[in-house]
Amino acid sequence: MTAVVHDENIGASKWMILGAVMTGVIMGPIDGSIVNVVLPSISSYFHTDYSVAQWVPAIYLLAICSFILVYGRLGDMLGYKKIFLTGLICFAGASLLCGFSTSIWMLIVFRAIQGLTVAMQMAIGLAIVTVAFPPNERGKAIGIYATAIALGLMVGPVLGGIIAQYMSWRFVFYINAPIAVISLVWGYRVIPPGKRKPGQQLDIWGAVLAFVFLFSILLYANRGKNWGWFSPRCVTLLGIAVVFGGLFFHVERKSAQPMIDLSIFKNRRFSFACLSSLINFMALYMVIFLTPWYLSDALHHDVLAVGLVMTAFPLATFFIGPLSGSLSDRIGFRGLAFVGMSIHAIGVLLLSHLDGSASSLDVSWRLAVCGLGAGMFQSPVNSAVMGSAPRHFRGIASSILAVTRNTGMAFGIAVAGAIVYSLAPFTTSGHAGPFIGGELPIFLNGLHWAYLTGAGLSVLSAFTVLFAWGNN
Q1: What is the dihedral of CA 126, 408, 309, 376, to 10 degrees?
Q2: Which residue, of 169, 343, 344, 457, has the fewest CB within 10 Å?
Q3: What pLDDT, in 10s, does the model give residues 311-336?
Q4: Whole-prediction pTM value?
Q5: Structural fold of domain 261-472
Q6: What is the pLDDT of residues 279-317, one digit of tens each?
Q7: Which CATH number does 1-200 carry?
Q8: CB under 8 Å to 464, separation ≥6 — which residues?
């Protein structure tokens, strides 16, 4: 009888840990998606050019990606709980500072700090969940964990639309504080403390080189359209990324305690699953970037209607993710991931045939097909990556997954924008509002080819995951 009670307590504990982590992690996708909706309100409030206001979401993404690897390594060294809870405390404070901002540049600075802090949860969350669950339940747990991401992406646009229409943009940031406090108290009570590993040191040179490399390549992807892809500034950024990326790998091979032990990439399953995830998020964020643009400027939807239509994607992911993750525990991940990205490719292909007379329902069910495929793919692949990483590397493995996710997002948006802007150049001239005259067919043609590219990337991701075999 005692043994049974003990097992039930363990079960209750691991599910409580998962709940605490999901509550903290959900703020990242909410904050990433909600700010884009209220950006016009922020630009108008501060009487600033939209190109300046765009740094509010851009600096957040850059800060997250540039520091995730450092936090993953610190988690492996100091314990995951300490990094996770520190991130929650700092995120709550940074969110309040964003809401109190009195100038656009103050908001941009505080937004960067907010990105630095939320990166702690994003880097460590999967590692905490992986440690808490046995291998035969890992896929199910990670599938449920993924619903926090989907729920955040689903709630963000709708909440942003409501705030933009009825409240001050400052509430976009204020709402983070109570969520962070709930997760902090919950996580403090249930997440295991972990142990500091004696004799471990942070690879400072590796951290600096990784930061410069990631910041440069992501800044290129983010600002290439505005600055010109082959302008001196962008070419310089690419040069810096190549040099510092090369130096990073050289230093990591020589370091006694590298920030990333490169031997982890000898694991075929880990490497190809990460590569497939990178391509997946490129395809996924091409859809997330292009579709609101189409809804607002081609179909003339207001901001709240756009948010409601866009929920079809994460809503489908929300329901299929846990089922797919649980199924992967029994039948493996490659078949599910391949089918998932194939379905996503079909959904994007269907989106590419939309015209200027489509209804909200026409767009919604196609987005749901995309979300269904994405949910089938992500939970099994994330479980495969975390399961193939050695226990003492799970913090860095979690952060590598987060880097691939955010890098894929940045490059997906860059590729989609580059295709549309090249085929419909008038969209780069500060265009806002519905297209008129002959502009709409030209824009729809650019949209068509951008979606087709996204479908092609989905197919590439599907076939890449097939190479992720062996190295359990």
Answers
A1: -50
A2: 343
A3: 888 888 888 888 888 888 888 888 89
A4: 0.81
A5: Growth Hormone; Chain: A; (1.20.1250)
A6: 998 998 899 888 888 888 888 887 778 878 888 888 888
A7: 1.20.1250.20
A8: 272, 275, 276, 279
